[in-house]
Each structure stands twice: as structure tokens, then as C-alpha cells.
């Protein structure tokens, strides 16, 4: 019983305080006084958040030695405590003041190829009319950190800093955000302000052009008829009686007049070239990371050739399907790929192709040197009948060449530059 009364009393008291504060704030001049007392408190709390671990150690040591020196009348401790607290307060002073900056992060290009030059620039402008103190600019670039000193800027002045971004390997590099940092030389207090968003730099894999005459497996298959019968196509097959639902545009009027029965045309379905590029990114299928990089570049080269020849294209890996409606979309997807794991490989990809890409005309499996001929033979046996099978096998220690395993034509390359020549050899 007493507990419930206490709770009720507490709620009533809190409500009364809130009401009293609201009433006081309506009195002229009181609201302004409340705001003036609240502002310094908020500034002090914000400033305390800028203090680092070393700063708190210095402050605690200063207060402790100050107290002990005063308590035991120990002059040395007292002087040391005053000195440490003074250092801490001085460090706080370094962070005070506005940072009236307008900061812009510029990339020379959002997409480059491995080895190409990529530049970034940071432009900082003082938006105020008075001089601002020097600061430091920090910006993450991938796993690295770029830092440079920002000099004091006069009103309206600006400073630009340029730097190169390493593009030695395929990657998606996060550039930014740009932060301005003020702090003391000892690193006790650090005040950072973020000015920009993160920009992504795509370092695309290298690719090579595969001339249509060189990549014989990519020759256009359109116009090749199949044994499937369709009500609408180009290759005429036969006539049959009209059935409800048939397209009247295919009625053969001359035969209808001769037989007295509505007759419609039937056609043999012609095959449109549909290329499937299956890339294994299972780490166990490759001897090292260099083989995987060559395989990704080979898959990109094959996909780009298919897009250039306006073929239907499906690109998948041992772990997912990649969007490939345009050159940029395909290369962006390949750039994000990483080595995977699990019981997936060329045989699993062949099952996926047979299940999900029923109308494929050419399946290209790209893998590494640890994939055995037995695996390639099994993958070829899984593919649907009528699908031409090609395997691009990357082996850093093997000579470029062509072989046949079951129904699969195997093209072996050690370097990307060998791909076009070896594909041309496969069609001789």
C-alpha cells in the first residue's frame, strides 16, 4: 500500500515540477535566462566527448595529485596537479571555435581498370569572413588513412589537396568521408567533424577484346532451326487445322479455300543465341588468388564480347547470379566478387544452368587449375542436350592449349593475354 502511494507521490511531484518549469518559461525574460544557462552546459558536455583516453588519464592524475598535495601540504604534488590540469584545460582550448568549412571530395573517375591512374582531390573553403586556425584533414581510403595539414585560411579562401589512389588490384574502394580534426599537439583532446559522404571507386578487372572471328564459340547461332514446333516463327514447317485461340494472321487462305476447312501454318522454332558464362569463385578450385583474378578477367572478356554482339547473356557464379544487362553492370558485379567456399564448383554450376537457363545455346565454365578433367566431364554430362559446352581453365604453370574432355572443349590459359589466341585455335 505504501509503495503505491510513494509511486503516486513521485509522479505528482514530477508533474508539478514540469508544470512549474513551463509556467516560469512564460514569464518575460525567464526563458532567455534558461537558454543562457543551458547553452554553456551543452557546450561543456559536447567538449567532454572530444576528450580521448589519454586526456582522461591526465585530468584524473592532475585532480588526484592536486587533492593529495593540498591535503598533505606537499608542494611538489600540488604544483604537478595544477600543471596537469592546466595542460588539460589548454588542450580543450585548442578545440574551441567554429569550423566554417565547405568541403568537397572529387574523384577523377568513379570507374577505372586495374593499373589505371585514379586521382582524388579534397577542396576546403572557408565560408566565413574571418580567419580560421589550422586543422588536420583525415580521410579513409579503403583500409588506409590519408591525412594532411590544413593551413589557416583567410575569409573566403580555399585549399586543395590532390592524391593518388592505388589501383594495383581489383576492388571496390570506399573513399571518405572527409573529416576535419582539431586537437592539441599532445593528442589529449580531438574534435572531428564529418563533411562528406563515402564515395565508391570501382577498380574493374582487366579484360581483352575477343574478335568475333577469333572466338568461334561465340559465332551467332541465330537462324539455326530446332525440332520444336511453334505457332509463330520464320521457318515454315507444315499446315494443320485451325483451333480456337490460333492467331488468325497465320491462316493459309489458299489451302482453306481448297479444303473448305480453316488451315493455319506451323513453324519450326529457330534458336536465338543465349550464352551462359559460369564462373567458379570457390577458393578450392584455384591454386592461388592470381588464378582467380585471371578467371574473373576471362569471364568479363567473354561477357563483354557477348554483349557487344547483342547476344542474350546470363552470368552466374558458383554462389550467385550476376546482373549483366550492360557493360558497366557486368563489370561492377565482377569487381565485387570475392573468393568463396563450400561444396560448390563447376558441377554445381552445370546443374544450375540446366535448371534455370533452359534455352541456353552455349555454356562457358570458367575455373582454376585444381578442377580435374573428371569434374569437367561430369559437368558436361549434366548440361542439357544441344547446349554446346566450353571450359576456360586457368593454370598458371601450364602452356596454353586446347583439349576435349567428353562433350566439353577445354581451353587452358595461364595469362589473360592468351585467351583470344587460344579460343581461335579451338575453332580450327
UniProtKB/TrEMBL annotation:
The chain crosses the membrane at residues 47-68, 74-96. The keyword Metal-binding does not apply. InterPro entries: DUF58. Residues 239-412 form the DUF58 domain. Keywords: Membrane, Transmembrane, Transmembrane helix. It holds the Pfam family DUF58. It comes from the Bacteria. PANTHER family: SLR1927 PROTEIN (PTHR34351:SF1), SLR1927 PROTEIN-RELATED (PTHR34351). This is DUF58 domain-containing protein.
Amino acid at each position: 500500500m505504501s509503495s503505491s502511494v510513494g509511486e503516486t507521490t513521485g509522479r505528482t511531484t514530477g508533474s508539478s515540477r514540469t508544470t512549474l518549469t513551463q509556467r516560469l518559461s512564460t514569464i518575460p525574460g525567464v526563458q532567455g535566462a534558461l537558454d543562457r544557462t543551458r547553452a554553456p552546459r551543452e557546450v561543456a558536455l559536447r567538449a567532454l566527448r572530444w576528450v580521448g583516453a589519454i586526456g582522461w588519464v591526465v585530468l584524473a592524475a592532475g585532480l588526484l595529485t592536486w587533492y593529495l598535495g593540498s591535503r598533505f601540504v606537499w608542494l611538489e604534488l600540488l604544483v604537478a596537479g595544477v600543471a596537469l590540469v592546466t595542460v588539460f584545460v589548454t588542450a580543450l582550448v585548442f578545440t574551441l571555435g567554429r569550423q566554417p568549412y565547405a568541403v568537397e571530395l572529387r574523384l577523377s573517375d568513379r570507374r577505372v581498370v586495374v593499373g589505371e591512374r585514379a586521382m582524388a582531390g579534397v577542396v576546403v573553403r572557408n565560408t566565413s569572413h574571418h580567419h580560421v586556425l589550422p586543422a588536420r584533414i583525415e580521410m579513409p581510403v579503403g583500409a588506409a588513412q590519408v591525412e594532411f595539414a590544413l593551413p589557416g585560411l583567410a575569409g573566403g579562401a580555399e585549399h586543395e589537396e590532390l592524391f593518388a589512389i592505388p589501383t594495383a588490384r581489383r576492388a571496390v574502394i570506399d573513399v571518405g568521408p572527409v573529416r576535419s580534426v582539431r586537437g592539441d599537439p599532445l593528442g589529449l583532446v580531438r574534435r572531428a567533424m564529418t563533411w562528406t559522404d563515402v564515395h565508391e571507386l570501382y577498380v574493374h578487372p582487366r579484360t581483352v577484346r575477343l574478335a568475333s572471328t577469333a572466338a568461334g564459340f561465340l559465332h551467332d547461332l541465330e537462324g539455326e532451326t530446332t525440332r520444336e514446333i511453334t505457332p509463330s516463327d520464320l521457318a515454315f514447317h507444315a499446315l494443320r487445322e485451325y483451333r480456337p485461340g490460333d492467331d488468325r494472321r497465320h491462316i493459309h487462305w489458299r489451302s482453306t479455300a481448297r479444303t473448305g476447312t480453316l488451315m493455319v501454318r506451323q513453324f519450326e522454332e529457330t534458336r536465338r543465341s543465349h550464352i551462359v558464362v559460369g564462373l567458379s569463385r570457390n577458393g578450392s578450385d584455384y591454386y592461388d588468388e592470381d588464378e582467380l583474378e585471371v578467371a574473373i578477367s576471362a569471364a568479363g572478356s567473354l561477357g563483354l564480347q557477348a554483349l557487344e554482339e547483342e547476344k542474350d547473356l546470363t552470368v552466374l557464379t558458383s554462389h550467385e547470379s550476376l546482373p549483366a544487362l550492360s557493360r558497366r553492370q557486368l563489370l561492377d558485379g565482377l569487381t565485387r566478387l570475392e573468393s568463396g567456399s563450400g561444396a560448390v564448383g563447376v558441377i554445381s554450376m552445370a546443374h544450375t544452368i540446366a535448371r534455370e537457363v533452359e534455352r541456353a545455346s552455349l555454356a562457358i565454365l570458367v575455373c582454376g587449375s585444381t578442377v580435374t578433367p573428371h569434374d569437367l566431364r561430369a559437368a558436361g554430362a549434366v548440361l542439357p542436350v544441344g547446349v554446346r559446352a566450353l571450359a576456360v581453365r586457368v593454370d598458371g604453370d601450364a602452356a596454353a592449349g586446347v583439349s576435349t574432355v567428353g562433350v566439353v572443349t577445354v581451353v587452358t590459359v595461364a595469362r589473360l593475354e592468351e585467351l583470344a589466341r587460344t579460343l581461335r585455335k579451338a575453332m580450327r
